[in-house]
Amino acid sequence: MIFVNGQNIRRETNKVQRSIGYCPQTDTVITHFTGRENLVYFLILRGYSKNSAEILAEAIARKHGFYSHIDKRVNVYSGGNKRKLCLAIALLGDAPILALDEPTSGVDPGSRRYMFSLITEASRGKTTLLTTHHLEDCEAICTRALIMANGKFKCIGSLQHLKTKFAAGYFIIIKLEANKQGNPPTDTQLKSLKDYMFENFADPPLVEELLFSLTYRVSNKDTPWSKAFSVMENAEKSFPIEDISIEQCGLDEICSWRNEEKVF
């Protein structure tokens, strides 16, 4: 037996369906309807009266950022506005379970951030299942993550648990100080700094080198954060360094394991 929100999916199918708000990866809106007609239609399916649905439709379109297009047919909407409409429909009716499949695919960065603020707000007190290729989205709103690759589950747990267990290591970002003429450190100074990093961090890979910054990935588990802070504090006294930051590796580092067979 499978139960959703305490309801048997075979015997209480209608109740189960009413308890789920679903945003599929593809745009499953009615394209020959306007945005307003889509919202009113799905609100009525959720049990609202026609009058209530018409009033709510305008408020929802304003909140989700496509009110200026509400009376246009959906088939002329941009991909981003179609996704906004799909998400709005998924959030109708205050369903206790939300299933969101790539809700922000094809959306510009500004709209993505706003849509995820709406998802975060709507998710409070609910069970939300989110599938995405944007790992920063997971870090923004998820409390637990399951990573899947090549059709297999690789790992599951809280974000901090996954980072601690699989993304061993951290980044050291060194912001270099300009000289009085505004030029970057000399080649000799850079070489001395790189030699210093090599000696203290067991040959950490230099993942990015820009005119005024160096970024190292420290993956050696034998180099704790406390040692890193001590080493870099001494570096600031000896090299032309303006600022240093040390950051934990993110979920994208975990996905670099995608070709391994480790599962727990």
From TrEMBL:
Domain ABC transporter: 2-105
Any one GO molecular-function label of the UniProt entry: ABC-type transporter activity
GO CC aspect terms: membrane
Domain ABCA1-4-like C-terminal R2 regulatory: 168-248
One Pfam family, short name: ABC_tran
Name this polypeptide is given: ATP-binding cassette sub-family A member 3-like isoform X2
Origin species: Agrilus planipennis
Chain's gene name: LOC108743048
